[in-house]
Design goal:
transmembrane helix; single chain; 4 helices; alpha+beta; Pilus assembly protein TadG-related protein; Tad_N; 3-stranded antiparallel beta sheet
């Protein structure tokens, strides 16, 4: 009688094991699906960050070119140091497209704007790859989307009463830059990163 009792217990336990195993397998597949989606989102965000930064860096280069041309020629050249001028050009879109492509994504749009008081660019991208097959229907054709904003922040302070026709001393986060409009050589300008920082908006 005792042997039959144990056999009966094993018979009752087997369905429970099968049921628990099924639940664990489902949970594992669900976790994998969420991990796939998270990986796709992270990849999309990285691509968007890179595209936005590329657009802002290209705009900063254009800003430096226009600043160089304005010194000694335009009495409002100090405005460029405040980030008040708009350096937007076709290069910003090309730069963003290139960085998005390098991250296996496609640039949907890149728009200039002002964030936290600084000029910048918002890049919207869509991944070229999909989330992939999972237990969640439709994920095999889903592509991740993301957007990011990068801004150009002036780094230099100067006397607000400075005469743009006379030598001006800039304090760029502790680094001194002297510009004399009457004796200006474009090669005397420091690297763009000294005058302007480019970073993702918080």
């Amino acid at each position: 009688m005792t042997g039959l009792g144990h056999f009966g217990d094993r018979g009752q336990t087997l369905p429970i094991y099968i049921w628990l195993t099924g639940i664990l397998l489902f949970a594992a597949f669900a976790f994998f699906a969420f991990a796939q989606a998270a990986s796709a989102r992270n990849g999309a965000q990285s691509a968007a960050d890179a595209a936005a930064l590329a657009a802002a860096q290209d705009a900063r280069d254009e800003l430096m070119d226009q600043l160089s041309g304005a010194i000694g020629q335009d009495d409002n050249w100090l405005d460029w140091l405040d980030g008040e001028a708009d350096p937007a050009g076709a290069g910003t879109t090309a730069a963003a497209m290139q960085l998005a492509a390098q991250n296996d994504s496609t640039l949907q749009s890149v728009q200039p704007g002002v964030w936290n008081g600084y000029p910048g660019y918002q890049a919207d991208i869509q991944t070229n790859y999909t989330v992939g097959d999972s237990i969640i229907p439709g994920t095999e054709g889903m592509q991740a989307r993301a957007h990011a904003i990068a801004v150009i922040q002036p780094r230099c302070d100067f006397d607000l009463d400075a005469d743009p026709k006379k030598p001006v001393e800039l304090n760029c986060d502790g680094e001194t830059v002297n510009i004399d409009p009457e004796d200006f050589n474009p090669d005397d300008l420091p690297d763009a990163s000294v005058l302007f920082s480019v970073h993702l908006a918080e």
